[in-house]
Hints:
The protein is 37% helix and 27% strand. The chain is α/β, with parallel strands linked by helices. α3 packs parallel to α6 (140-152) and α6 runs parallel beside α7. It is globular, with a radius of gyration of 17 Å. The model has no long low-confidence stretch (mean pLDDT 94). Residues 14, 17, 19, 37, 39-45, 195 line the site of adenosine-5'-triphosphate (ATP).
Amino acid sequence: MSALLAINRLSVAYGGIHAVRELSLEVAPGEMVCLIGANGAGKTTTLKAVSGLLAPHGGSVHFDGQSITRLPAHEVARRGLTLVPEGRGVFPRMSVAENLMMGAYARRDRAEIARDLDQVYALLPRLTERRAQLAGLLSGGEQQMLALGRAMMARPRLLLLDEPSMGLAPLMVQAVFDIIRRIAAGGVAVLLIEQNAHLALKTCARGYVLENGTVTLSGPAAELSANPAVRQAYLGD
Ligand code: ATP
């Protein structure tokens, strides 16, 4: 497999606390991969290090064959790696349309931006009716959809999704994950981190299990779902 994203022995520490230790992980072009683990296992820290928001202590991150290990976040984003952070990070006092346009801030191709905007509205019909509304007035699920739409406006090759199901009612979780699947079906690779292991393994082709900052298991999602240790620790068996 020639990887789109290759993380090799990544280590990240906060002061003396080692949050991620020698973590290795790969995502192929167009692949959906999940990283599951308990609270505090190091999932968010991994995504922050990959997206340039935290500098790793050791190891490397390659994207499309090039090192992005110590690049600043805006440089990482410019290469096609887009983070949808935990808590969504939408701008509450800006309209839905303005939030979406923020996703395209680094682009200059106006005609293409307009076309992508139409595609995002087609993907997110609930937002089309609300395009003039302030983002802060949307429901949690709609804000998650808006965050996904904004990420799509950057034309990502890889989406890094931090807990998209967090705090959402079950029906809304389904709606958000339908959108994520449609985005992936369009050829965008996805690295999904989730505490909801059941949902993550159902959605993704492959998965990694993170414990105390280290990968303890990895494999096809169906294999992980059938693994007794995974079932007991993460699937509530
Ligand atoms: P959660 O699902 O709760 O977000 P997580 O798997 O994403 O968990 P991280 O947020 O990456 O885990 O945290 C990994 C470890 O690093 C935890 O022990 C956490 O307490 C610690 N940690 C996270 N952020 C900081 C910080 N800014 N300063 C110090 N320690 C931190």
